[in-house]
Amino acid sequence: MKHALVNEERGVTIVEVSVNALMDPLDMERFKSDLNQLVETQDKRRLILDLARVQFLASQAIGTLVTMHRATAARPKGGMVIVGVGPRIAELLRITRLDKVFTVRASRQEAMKHFERHGMVS
Among 82, 78, 120, 113, which Cα is nearest to 99's? Predict the structure, then answer.
């Protein structure tokens, strides 16, 4: 992925976004395509999306997050947890009420515990 580092741990795909803004339409299309490939083509059912470096999100980025949330949730033992949310992104999620839709945790460790509690990893 051009704008993210991808690792796997205990059957969970960790996507660490490595840019501080997801705003450019071309970059957004690439980001969406890369995430879609992980979920749809490679059948990655459990995602941790680390936004620690991200300060700004375009509306298209939010749409991509919603799409990935739905795609992972629709798969058996699937789901997406967002971590590393800074104050700006937290406010954006609160204003759009997506903080009630997405599972947001403070750290990757807490995200893994979420998957453990729901029987998605051992």
Answer: 82
Domain coordinates of the chain in residue numbers? Answer: 4-117
The matching CATH number, chosen from 3.40.50.1110, 1.10.10.10, 3.30.750.24, 3.40.50.720, for 4-117 is 3.30.750.24
pTM of this structure: 0.93
Q: Look at residue 28 in the predicted model and tell me its pLDDT.
A: 86
Q: pLDDT per residue over 45-92, tens digit each?
A: 999 999 999 999 998 999 999 999 999 999 999 999 999 999 999 999
Q: Which residues contact 33 (CB under 8 A, 6 or more apart)?
A: none
Task: Evaluate whether 38 touches 13 at the Cβ level (below 8 Å).
Answer: yes
Q: Assign residue 78 a region: left if phi > 0, alpha if psi is -120 to 50, beta otherwise?
A: beta
The helix (run of H) or strand (run of E) holding residue 83 is strand 79-83
Q: What sign does the dihedral 103-106-109-110 (CA atoms) show? A: negative
